[in-house]
Each structure stands twice: as C-alpha cells, then as structure tokens.
Design goal:
208 residues; 28% strand; 12 strands; alpha+beta; 5 helices; 5-stranded mixed beta sheet
C-alpha cells in the first residue's frame, strides 16, 4: 500500500476531526496530527480509533487459494476484472464474470486438449491454447484429466478461479485492488510492487 502511495497509519490513533479541503480530505488525529488525503477512499470517522497499519483506501484485499471460498469469490469478483497475466503464459486474458465454457478440438494419443474460453482477444486465446497443448504433450499432464473430460464430452462449464485455487493452493495470491476511482498511477505502482515482492513460487491473480 505504501509503495503505491497510499497512507498507512504508523501506530494506533484516534481521529479527532475530519473536513473537506481543496482536492481532498484533512484528517486530524490525536497523536499523528494532520494527515491530508488527496485520492478517493472510504471516509474515516471522528471519534473512531484506527489500528496500527490501517490503510486509508476504499478496498484492498489479499487472500490465498485455500481461503477462496464462495463468499470471498462473491466479494472479490463483484464488478472486478481479474487479470490472468500473473498466472498464464500469455498476457491480456482475463477471468470472465461467469462460468467458463470448455470444449476441445484436438487429441493426442487418446487424450483431448481442453480449451477454456477466457475473456480476451481471439489471437491471444489461440496462442494460450497452443501453448497449453504444447505443455500437455511435453509433460503428459492434461487439463482434460483434471476436469474429467474425454472424447465423450463435447463441452462443459467450470469455475476457473476454483480450478486455479485447487491447483495452486496457498501459492495462489488473489489480490483485489478495488480502487475503481483512484488515479491509474496508484494501481500501476501497486501492481509493480506485488510482482516484484511476491513470495517465491507464488502466482498472482489481480483484480481492479
């Protein structure tokens, strides 16, 4: 949050006064004194005590794959667009706001190559499918086996987020930025920080 330029309280403190100033909001805390905020955020309330590390923002959430239950999926994906750039080998694809259609058109050695229909430009989707097929032939690990799909199955629908969570477990970090009205530079700096500082071996699923 600090890397993106948002304010983070260095210690617990009580808000005394809140008032609108030109281009932002001025907060006066009991010990910290004056803090001026010049970006969109959920308003703070006088008389309330805020904990150490409190981030002045609207929504900022991180969960791991094992925490991604139905309630979190609903909260995280409502109105959000999840970029799959940190998960897939092709950039520019996003997670649809609906169950994903899966079909197949090719098979190798009796195994079908499942194609998940994600959101994005058709050429990028074709590129992703081609790379997935190449990986399956090379490793012998097929997505169709995970999904229980074979030549008798024409199509099915899946929750792709649940598939990712099941595969990566706690190595999957789901990040909900949620700053829909904030300046783009906040998101850019935060994305760069997360990509740079994420734990070794983890993958990022980032939403706006």
């Amino acid at each position: 949050a600090e890397a993106s330029g948002m304010l983070v309280l260095p210690h617990e403190d009580t808000l005394v006064v809140s008032r609108v100033i030109d281009g932002g909001t001025r907060y006066v805390f009991e010990h910290l004194g004056v803090l001026d905020v010049f970006y969109p955020h959920d308003p703070l309330h006088p008389g309330r005590t805020y904990p150490e590390g409190f981030i002045v923002t609207d929504r900022f959430s991180i969960v791991t794959g094992h925490e991604l239950d139905a309630d979190w999926v609903n909260r995280l994906t409502t109105g959000a667009t999840f970029s799959l750039d940190g998960v897939l080998p092709v950039k520019g694809l996003t997670l649809p706001h609906r169950p994903c259609l899966v079909d197949w058109v090719e098979q190798t050695g009796g195994k079908v190559h499942a194609r998940v229909h994600l959101d994005g430009d058709a050429p990028k989707l074709e590129q992703y499918w081609a790379l997935q097929k190449e990986h399956e032939v090379r490793t012998g690990v097929y997505l169709s086996d995970v999904l229980g799909m074979d030549t008798t199955t024409s199509t099915l629908t899946i929750d792709f987020a649940a598939v990712l969570a099941g595969y990566y477990g706690d190595a999957l970090l789901v990040v909900r930025l949620g700053m829909a009205t904030a300046a783009p530079e906040f998101k850019t700096r935060l994305r760069s920080f997360l990509q740079r500082e994420k734990p070794l071996g983890s993958v990022l699923l980032i939403a706006d």
